Amino acid sequence: MPTISDLQSNTARQNVEDAIKKAKENDDYHALLSITEKRALERADAVDSGEVTGRLAGIPFVVKDNYLAYGAPTTAAARILENFNAPLQATAVEKLEAEGAICIGKANLDAFAHGGSTENSAFGPTKNAIDPTKVAGGSSGGSAVVTALDIVPFALGSDTGGSIRQPASFNGVYGIKPTYGMVSRYGVVAMASSTDVMGCFTKTVEDAELVMSVMAGRDEKDMTTLADYFHSTEAEGTYKIGVVKETLTNDVDESVRKVTNEYVQKLKQAGHTVEEVSLPLVKFSLAMYYIIVPAEVSSNLARYDGVRFGRRAENVKTLAELYGRSRDEGFVTENKRRIMIGSYVLSSGYFDAYYLKAQKARTLLIQQFDELFKQYDFLLTPTAPTPAFGMGENVEDPIKMYLSDAMTVPANLTGMPAMSIPAGVSPDGLPIGVQLVAPRKDDAKMLAFAKSVGGVV
Ligand code: GLN
User: Fold this and answer.
1) What are 95-137's pLDDT values in tens digits?
2) Catalytic residue among 117, 121, 139, 213
3) Nearest residue CA, atom 4 of ligand 1?
4) Rounded distance, CA 274 to CA 290, Å?
5) Domain for residue 222, yes or no?
6) Closest CA to 332 of 109, 129, 172, 39
7) The dihedral of CA 158, 425, 233, 97: what is its sign?
8) Which neighbouring-strand residues pair with 244?
9) CATH code, 165
10) Nearest-angstrom CA–CA distance, 200 and 298
11) 1: pLDDT confidence band, cut at 50, 70 and 90?
12) Residue 148 located in a structural domain
């Protein structure tokens, strides 16, 4: 398992060539949409010549293909952006490059990050790293799989409702979703601007700390970013952890409950206080999420008109036909479903009944979390209700697919940091993660705690 520090003694060229070779050997998983070989090798030579130095000098990584990055098109796994070449790079990528890290490719995702399995990619699904008959999870499925397969020591994802944590759980790696505003979203294709955050997948907590510390901080180009408060630290003494009982009902897969309970025992043995707590509004968070997020999606996707970005429909006679056909051909079914739901909940007759009500409920949810965090350092839940499900199993049933997000969406609605820790496996060997949630800006404390307790990678 090469970690960042394992790779630091090699030349950058060696690391990049090894990573690209491994990526090509694992082509069957369809985790990558492109390999940025030419640019990666040029950058490797710049590191090896001493021109570029830094804390991540010569370390290869992968970005989800909704980050704007040079060297290959940024498609967001949707046909409408198929040939879109980024005119600039995402701030997160720029910051990593400034420390000498080298992007070797762009990972598959559900189109525009809408989904939880990577089956909504317009370019075909990604296979699970442990069992290729299962889904990779999503929407950052490709990033999770390249990390799990040891192609690169870290990969970037975006998390709007669980898209880093759920695939991390499905592939047995760490997945970090920071506090809303800790990492700039500038240069990443927007999904839902009030919940989008950028984070990473790694095999160790130490590597996550390093990557997050490089990406964190205020960016004048993203007005929601916070001044850098992230400083890696060590756990001190014992902590109080609340286990959210609404996330451990009988609807949750038995193997997931077992692994979570075992993790609770592990925490207790390490001397921490673990108590059952209740967050009654958690059971409504999916309903809130699937109103608020489509509303924001319908607005953010309005800019893809076939004129300003990407692909344009051909042989059209009128402007209306140009917009209509470009959007019809360029979006996948799930994108269209969300645009329609979003437009509906924002329309004048329904705004109060759906959108406004969901926002009010969201405020109450935030209050319930804040109240519990007066007494507890962290909250613990499973990351997802099941281990990775079968390819095709949930595609025809969007509600079933959405249920997979039940435990991850609350941290997005509240802006709190959360992570998935690989904690065990199901009887048939599929990875299972547990989720830690912390108060806003306690990202470093959360990682320190996870580091002290450990996981099963
Ligand atoms: N699965 C969730 C959804 O479909 C999360 C997506 C995400 O975090 N990008 O909305």
Assistant:
1) 999 999 999 999 999 999 999 999 999 999 999 999 999 999 9
2) 139
3) 115
4) 31
5) no
6) 109
7) negative
8) 277
9) 3.90.1300.10
10) 26
11) low
12) yes
- The tokens for 373 are 């965090």
Beta bridge partners of 436: 380, 419
Of ligand 1's listed atoms, the one at least distance from the Cα of 163 is 8
Q: Where are the alpha helices (DSSP H) in 216-270?
A: 254-269
Is residue 432 in some structural domain? no
At residue 2 the predicted structure's pLDDT band, cuts being 50, 70 and 90, is: confident
Give how far Cα 248 sits from Cα of 57, 276, 376, Å: 43, 10, 18
The number of domains in the chain is: 1
Q: What is the DSSP letter of 183?
A: B
Which residue type sits at 418? A
Q: Which residues contact 438 (CB under 8 A, 6 or more apart)?
A: 377, 378, 379, 416, 417, 418, 445, 446
Q: Length of the chain in residues, anyone?
A: 457
- β-strand partners of 360: none
Rounded to whole angstroms, the Cα distance separating 239 from 380 reads 12
Residue 100 is encoded by which pair of tokens?
A: 């000498």
B/e letters for 355-381, b = 16+ CB within 10 Å, e = fewer, are: bebbeebbeebbebbeebbeebbbbbb
Give residues (CB < 6 A) around ligand 1: 113-116, 139, 158-163, 191, 293, 405
Q: Based on the residue annotation, tell me whether 121 is a catalytic residue of this protein.
A: no
- Which residue type is seen at 110? D
Asked if residue 144 lies in contact with residue 362, where contact means CB atoms within 8 angstroms, the answer is: no
Q: Given a cut of 70, is residue 186 above it in pLDDT?
A: yes
Is 21 inside any structural domain? yes
Q: Which domain holds residue 44?
A: 4-215
Q: Which two structure tokens, joined as six digits, stand for 73?
A: 């098109």
The verdict on whether 163 is a catalytic residue reads yes
Give the sheet arrangement for strand 102-107, strand by strand.
Answer: 32-35, 102-107, 60-64, 154-159, 197-202, 174-177, 418-425, 431-437, 378-382, 240-244, 273-277
74 CA from centroid of ligand 1 (Å) = 19
Contact between 66 and 189 under an 8 Å Cβ cutoff? The reply is yes
- Buried residues in 321-334 as b, exposed as e (16+ CB within 10 A): ebbebbbeebbbeb
